[in-house]
Amino acid sequence: MNVCTPNRNYDGFLRVMFALRHSQLMGKTGNERREILDRWSATGRIQELREKLRRLSENKPKDTIIYDSDGEGCVVIYADPLEFDGTKQEVLDYLYDECATRIYSEYDCTGKRFTRWFKVGHLGGNLWKVAEAFGLDV
User: Fold this and answer.
1) How many angstroms separate the CA atoms of 110 and 18, rounded?
2) Residue 129, beta-bridge partner list
3) Do 53 and 84 fall within a single domain?
């Protein structure tokens, strides 16, 4: 399901910029309006605003976190794909050897999280989508 969430930073910035422009142009006509707009253009203000709007409009992907019903663990689906040349088993071996969060004692009971499992999906080429399940050492 694709859910569209509003970009509040983008919307707020647009509202403020329109209000500022409106307040500067209110009551001005003809040459006065043109002079204000030319001044904005000459100072590079319009280009700065366009650049800021572009940065605000970029939707950066975020990791998805799904908590267990008992609250003792979660699954994290990472937004950025993993770049790795190899087979699915080689990717899993790499993740378990290099990226897994481990508990150091079998009976630690410190409340730290540890990796329960990884799931990977091949996106194409050398890109892999990774999901990691965490448990809570209680």
Assistant:
1) 53
2) 121
3) no
Give the residue carrying structure tokens 């790795």: 84
| Whether residue 49 sits in one domain with residue 73 | no
Instruction: Residue 100: give the domain boundaries.
Output: 64-136
Query: In the chain, which ranges are continuous DSSP H helix?
Result: 8-25, 30-42, 45-57, 88-94
- Whether 76 is covered by a domain: the verdict is yes
54's tokens: 């572009």
pLDDT in tens, 73-126: 888 888 888 898 888 999 999 988 888 876 665 666 666 778 888 999 988 888
Length of the chain: 138
Both 89 and 123 in one domain: the answer is yes
DSSP single-letter state for residue 101? -
Give the Cα separation of 58 and 65 in Å (integer): 21
Read off the pLDDT of residues 120-129 as tens digits, 9 standing for 90 and up: 998 888 899 9
